[in-house]
Write a structure and sequence with these properties.
The chain has no helices and 11 strands. It has 126 residues and is mostly beta strands. Strands 2, 4, 5, 6, 9, 10 and 11 form a 7-stranded mixed sheet that branches. Strands 1-3-8-7 form a 4-stranded antiparallel sheet, with no helix packed on it. A hairpin with a 6-residue loop joins strand 4 and strand 5. It is globular, with a radius of gyration of 13 Å.
Length: 126
């Protein structure tokens, strides 16, 4: 059974950093992209970043480009999201997810993903 567990969230002040981790179990993440998404209260879930495999191609939402970095370690079956220069607009529940199909690239639409973690809260406020 596909299972993701996110960790590393919390409450930080604007300008600070967090590093999220996403550990997969029940399957091998190799050759599949991993996506990071977030959902703020009252808003739809949106794609934040994704990374493909094996070429580790990445894509980012415009709102996080230059501040967030996605990476992965297939040996540990884990993906990471390094988030720097956080601002209050980054507040939300962050999820990692597994896509429907194996592809050499990654996508940022939630509709392209089927297995999701339980989410982790990130709150940015003074």
């Amino acid at each position: 059974q596909v299972h993701f567990v996110e960790s590393g969230g919390g409450l930080v002040q604007p300008g600070e950093s967090l590093r999220l981790s996403c550990v997969a179990s029940g399957f091998d993440v190799q050759n599949y992209a991993i996506g990071w998404f977030r959902q703020a209260p009252g808003k739809e879930r949106e794609g934040v970043a994704c990374i493909s495999d094996p070429n580790h191609l990445t894509d980012y939402a415009d709102s996080v480009k230059g501040r967030f970095t996605v990476s992965r370690d297939n040996v540990k079956n884990t993906a990471y999201l390094q988030m720097n220069s956080l601002n209050p607009e980054d507040t939300g529940v962050y999820y990692c997810a597994h896509p429907h199909v194996m592809a050499p690239f990654c996508l940022l639409s939630p509709n392209d993903y089927d297995y999701w973690g339980q989410g982790i809260q990130v709150t940015v406020r003074s």
